[in-house]
Design brief:
The protein is an alpha/beta fold and 128 residues long. It has 6 helices and 5 strands; from the N terminus they run βαβααβααβαβ. Strands 4-3-2-1-5 form a 5-stranded parallel β-sheet, sandwiched between helices.
Length: 128
C-alpha cells in the first residue's frame, strides 16, 4: 500500500464472475478510488476466487454484448494501476484453481489473516 495515498479502501468479494454483478460493482468502486489517489486492496473469498482466473470465457454471452470484457481483464487493469488482489488459498484449492497457471501476474494467494489485515488497516471495507 502506498503511504502517500489519501485513504485505504478494502474489498471483500465473495461472488463469482458469472453469478452476479458484484464483481463489477467491486471493480467500479475500486477504479474510482484508485483514480482519486486512494490505496485499494481486494480479498477474493469463496467463489470470488474465480473472478481473476485468466482466459475466462462465457459461451454465448459475448455475442449478446453482456460480457464484452471478462472480469479477469478488469482486475488486471486494477493491478496494473496499483491495487492489491489477494485470493483465499483455501478457496482456490477447493475450486481446483492452479494458482501459478490460472492467475495472471499480480494476483496473490493468501489466507484469512490477510483479510484480517485489510479489515484492521483499511479506512473502509466494502463487502460484496
Amino acid at each position: 500500500r502506498n503511504p502517500d495515498s489519501m485513504a485505504y479502501i478494502g474489498f471483500l468479494l465473495t461472488g463469482g464472475p458469472f453469478d452476479s454483478e458484484r464483481w463489477r460493482t467491486a471493480y467500479e468502486l475500486g477504479r474510482a478510488a484508485l483514480d482519486q489517489g486512494h490505496a485499494v486492496s481486494y480479498f477474493h473469498y469463496l467463489d470470488g476466487a474465480l473472478v481473476p482466473v485468466a482466459d475466462q470465457t462465457l459461451p454465448g454471452c459475448s455475442d449478446s454484448g453482456l460480457y464484452d470484457e471478462m472480469p479477469t481483464e478488469k482486475f488486471q487493469e486494477l493491478i496494473a494501476d496499483g491495487a492489491e488482489v489477494i485470493c483465499c488459498g483455501l478457496c482456490v484449492d477447493a475450486r481446483g484453481i492452479d494458482a501459478p497457471a490460472d492467475y495472471p501476474e499480480g494476483v496473490e494467494v493468501g489466507l484469512l489473516p490477510d483479510l484480517a489485515d485489510i479489515i484492521g488497516e483499511a479506512d473502509r471495507v466494502v463487502s460484496l
